[in-house]
């Protein structure tokens, strides 16, 4: 009971954070139109970073056994967001004003509002079939779109990493070793799209497990 209550509170905190971001983005767009897209990061970036840092706890939940989700897919999804948000977007002010940041945040928060709503109700043993269907179906088309947005954000950031030398390291003599960070990001793009194939396969497996005929009958009963 204590662990279930803790997970409910965690999901509630995440739901409140992502709902605030999602609502804020919609209201700002309806009020200011396209002008709101350029300063999306400056208006909601702090709350977005807090929510993503908090999501690292989900890896711990799986490791200690209070969450039965698969570790590797969840680890990949969380680390993708952490790397793109903190390493790519947060470190380059020029990238923060790009429209792709707004698109990426919109996709992330749309998925998370649905997911944490489903999780909260599931902690209480409540399963609504439309919400269950939405939770396990919406991620299948939206996750690949978010990966494309992440890849585009990385590509947009490359010229700035090259110009400013951010995170590039050149060791002093007698070492003749250096790390050119744009190359690291280009290699990470390959990892990102390879991981996408694995995660999509996992999403289909989860959808079949929760929306299969037998599962639906059990939840209805």
What share of residues is helical? over 70%
Which stretches are poorly predicted, pLDDT < 50 over at least 5 residues? none
Distance between the termini: 23 Å
Question: Radius of gyration, rounded?
Answer: 19 Å
Give a count of the beta strands, DSSP E runs of length 2 or more.
2
Protein structure class = mainly alpha
- Report the order of strands and helices: HHHHHHHHEEHH
Count the domains: 1
Main beta sheet = 2 strands, antiparallel
Mean pLDDT figure? 90
Report on this model:
Strands 1-2 form a two-stranded antiparallel ribbon. Strand 1 (169-170) and strand 2 (178-179) form a beta hairpin. The relative contact order is 0.11. The radius of gyration is 19 Å and the shape is globular. It has ten helices and two strands; from the N terminus they run ααααααααββαα. The chain is an all-alpha fold and 221 residues long. It has one domain (3-219). The chain has helices spanning 2-32, 35-38, 40-54, 57-64, 71-89, 93-96, 99-123, 129-164, 181-211, 213-220; strands spanning 169-170, 178-179.
List strands and helices in order, with pairings.
Blueprint: H1 2-32, H2 35-38, H3 40-54, H4 57-64, H5 71-89, H6 93-96, H7 99-123, H8 129-164, E1 169-170, E2 178-179, H9 181-211, H10 213-220
Antiparallel strand pairs: 1-2
Helix pairs in contact: 1-3, 1-7, 4-5, 5-8, 5-9, 7-8, 8-9
GO molecular function: very-long-chain (3R)-3-hydroxyacyl-CoA dehydratase activity
Keywords: Endoplasmic reticulum, Fatty acid biosynthesis, Fatty acid metabolism, Lipid biosynthesis, Lipid metabolism, Lyase, Membrane, Transmembrane, Transmembrane helix
EC number: 4.2.1.134
């Amino acid at each position: 009971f204590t662990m279930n209550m803790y997970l409910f509170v965690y999901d509630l905190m995440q739901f409140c954070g992502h709902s605030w971001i999602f609502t804020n983005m919609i209201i700002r767009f309806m009020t200011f139109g396209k002008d709101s897209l350029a300063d999306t990061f400056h208006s909601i970036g702090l709350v977005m970073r807090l929510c993503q840092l908090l999501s690292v706890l989900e890896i711990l939940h799986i490791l200690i056994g209070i969450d039965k989700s698969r570790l590797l897919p969840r680890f990949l999804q969380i680390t993708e967001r952490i790397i793109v948000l903190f390493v790519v977007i947060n470190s380059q002010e020029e990238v923060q004003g790009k429209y792709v940041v707004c698109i990426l945040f919109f996709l992330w928060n749309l998925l998370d509002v649905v997911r944490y709503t489903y999780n909260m109700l599931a902690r209480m043993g409540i399963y609504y079939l439309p919400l269950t269907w939405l939770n396990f179906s919406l991620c299948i088309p939206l996750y690949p779109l978010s990966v494309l947005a992440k890849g585009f954000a990385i590509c947009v950031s490359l010229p700035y990493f090259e110009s400013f030398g951010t995170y590039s390291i050149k060791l002093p003599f007698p070492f003749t070793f250096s790390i050119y960070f744009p190359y690291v990001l280009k290699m990470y793009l390959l990892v990102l799209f390879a991981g996408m194939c694995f995660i999509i396969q996992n999403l289909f497996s989860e959808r079949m497990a929760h929306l299969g005929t037998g599962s639906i009958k059990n939840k209805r009963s």
